[in-house]
Amino acid sequence: MNRIVAFALALACFAPPAAAQQQGGAVQTVELRVAAQRPRGVLVDRGSSDGLAIGDRVRFRLRGGGTVDGRVSEVGERNALVLLDDPKAQVELGARGEAAIPSSRVAAEVERIEPAPEVEETAPEFEEHPPWERADDEFQADEPLLARVVPLRPAERTPSWRGRLWTSADEYTSSEDERTDGYERIGASLFGDNQLGHGERIALDFEVNARRTDLPPDPADQDVDATRLRVDRASYTLGDSRFSTDRVEFGRFLQRGMPEFGVVDGAEWGRRLDGGNRFGASVGWMPEPDEDYESGHDFQVAGYYRWVFDDSELASASLGAQKTFHHADADRDLLVAKVEYLPLEGWQAAATAWVDYYTSGDDAKGPGFDVSQLYARAWRRFSGGDSLAFTATHLSIPEIDRHEVPPLSAAALADDRHERVAAEWEHRFDDEFSLAFEGGLWTDEEESGTDGELGLTKREFWCDGGRGELALFGTRGRFSRTYGARARFARDDAYGAWRADYEFAQNLIDGFASDNNELPQHRLRCGRDGHFGDGWSFACDVEAFFWDQETAFALHVFLQRSF
Amino acid sequence: MRRTRIVTVVSLSLAAFVAACALRGPDAVKQHLWWSGFGPVLPHDTFPADCDQCHVGGDWQTLAADFAFDHAAETGVALEGAHAKAQCLLCHNDRGPAGVFQQRGCVGCHEDLHEGRLGPDCADCHTQWNWRPTDQRGEHQHSRFPLIGVHAATACNRCHPGAEVGRFVPTDPECVSCHFDDLAATDNPNHFGLGLTDHCERCHLPRTWYQVDTGN
């Protein structure tokens, strides 16, 4: 109401456009702004409630000077679509404009919104207000935005690409017969938004890599050379926004609803229910998880349901089932159960269990359920920077035909298992000193052991941005015992960080009675991380290993351009 | 035995889940009003009305070159590493409330290519500048197979065939799992003929690929 009255007062700031003139009589100006761009036109933030109607002429004032004219072609209650006379003209978002409309239409709209009160026959006497002394406050540009902002839908966003291009090289050489390994890679990860105008998302992730192993000239050895193109992701996604309860993705992608089911070449559909619960299903072939990523051998169908405590997803529980076929023969029946409790403060917890169901045809495992993997973790960050975390894991090797696990005997499949419980603790004494501990206990089908590491960190060590760490560690492993110490220095600067490590470990190898059971190991590592404002980043590390008789060197180089 | 283990695991998980929900604080999570009325995903209620103070160009996604926003001071969430230079829309978007993304950790925004098998603490291995894994050899000390001898200077995929696509488990620690081809190719002595097909550590040292101690 006030808006209309205010606009009514701003009469005839420019020549009355044709539509209003054609209707004859007085005209009023309605000020408006461009809220979104459309093909051949723009969406403005005024509609029928402001008096606009189809056919009204609109004139936009460009920020850089000049005007562009258009005509209202569609009208909503709070917005309107204006087609520009010159379809190639560009009108910036937020640009101001005016529409001239007949005063009679405004009066009718005012009447409709607020019918005039019945006039009493005898008007009451009232004391006339003295003239207002204070003028209206002028609106300032830095005052809060009171008007409602119209959001852009995914299909209305400007098409864009983002991602990264990268290359890396890892080279190893050892003094033993000059053995060398090389691994060079170049790849790209690209994400396209709304490229086809449907609000979709396109994901592409691929790399070309080359592996090379040069072995000593022994007839029994074979040099290894391989160059591969591997496509990790190539998918098209529709939906997946608050404007759409459904989400569809097809191509090669990691399953969204239940990532534990892995990458598929196929399709996934999911639906979000009121309150945030979700369910969905997927179908497709599963690439083998190795360097070739070969597909076509394993087919899967899967479904899941995810329950959330509320919109904030403070707590959630998910259950999914997957059935796989290897070369068209039934292979794996997998259930995945997952719970998460993730408040922003206090203890957080997450656990996931992979449970296989075996039938009488699974000779090694026998019929029944078996937990092939379990990961459970509870953690908390305290004020002041302290933290504490507990982790429990369980692993056994599932009996499946798919080339996903190492080939093992039936006895090994039945017995092999590995469990570990671990604790991580960090205490900050002040802004400079902190102490950290990580320790664990493990057991498997043959032995049990432990590992621990205690480290002290000092910030602002030696120089500005410097950080020094000293750690003691020990491991009782499956085949050896290891005790050692590590010293680390790092220095952050505006463009990255320098770092240097030295580690000594004394390894005592089980099963040897002679002096050969001791293997001292020195490791030196230094490197540099760099990043620049235009999206470039790089990393370079050099490592050297010294044992009592042999040495080895490694070089790692990484270069990336993000955009 | 197996059923008992499953029942134990499921019972403990459910008990922990119920306890966690019961201990929930009254204002544990405050979310942006992401759903309400389909307004902007990033609340603009307190922003200046002059759009071109921040927005430039022909879309709402491009920000002025001098745009500055102290995310840590304004929201309490510090943007570290590459996040400090990321576009706002990468986190504040139509796919979900940024508060939920944040509370879910890295996987709130990033795809977990390890498929949940390595847990939620990505920073154990990855940096926030370029996501490049660093010093996993040090992390390997916290396993039953610390990398000693030539194993320390060996590419990950030699033991983890799925390393290139993020798969590190399950891996069998027995020597023959990785060295079967070496075993099969050795004829001096003929290991298969002599029944030397397991417990390689009785003779072989991790010092080199070929060194043997026959003193035992």
Q: Concise description?
A:
With 563 residues, chain A is mainly β. Chain A contains 4 helices and 28 strands. Chain B has 6 helices and no strands.
Question: What does the model show?
Answer:
Chain A is mainly beta. Chain A contains four helices and 28 strands. The longest helix of chain A is centred in the N-terminal third of the chain and has 11 residues, at 103-113. Chain A is elongated, with a radius of gyration of 34 Å. By secondary structure, chain B is an all-alpha fold. Chain B is elongated, with a radius of gyration of 27 Å.
Record the SSE blueprint.
The complex is a heterodimer of chains A (563) and B (216).
Chain A: H1 2-9, H2 18-23, E1 27-38, E2 41-44, E3 57-61, E4 67-75, E5 80-84, E6 96-102, H3 103-113, E7 160-174, E8 180-193, E9 201-214, E10 224-241, E11 244-254, E12 263-272, E13 278-285, E14 298-308, E15 315-326, E16 329-341, E17 348-358, E18 368-381, E19 387-396, H4 410-415, E20 417-428, E21 433-444, E22 448-459, E23 466-476, E24 480-493, E25 496-509, E26 518-531, E27 536-546, E28 551-562
Antiparallel strand pairs in A: 1-2, 1-6, 2-5, 3-4, 3-6, 4-5, 7-8, 7-28, 8-9, 9-10, 10-11, 11-12, 12-13, 13-14, 14-15, 15-16, 16-17, 17-18, 18-19, 19-20, 20-21, 21-22, 22-23, 23-24, 24-25, 25-26, 26-27, 27-28
Chain B: H1 2-22, H2 71-75, H3 98-103, H4 136-139, H5 175-185, H6 191-194
Strand content of chain B: under 5%
Strand content of chain A: over 45%
Helix content of chain A: under 10%
Which stretches of chain B are poorly predicted, pLDDT < 50 over at least 5 residues?
Answer: 25-32
SS summary, helix count of chain A: 4
Counting H and I runs of at least 4 residues, what is the number of helices of chain B? 6
Query: What's the total number of strands of chain B?
Result: 0
List keywords for this structure.
heterodimer; A: 563 residues; mainly beta; 22-stranded antiparallel β-barrel; six-stranded antiparallel barrel; 4 helices; disordered N terminus; B: 216 residues; mainly alpha; 24% helix; elongated
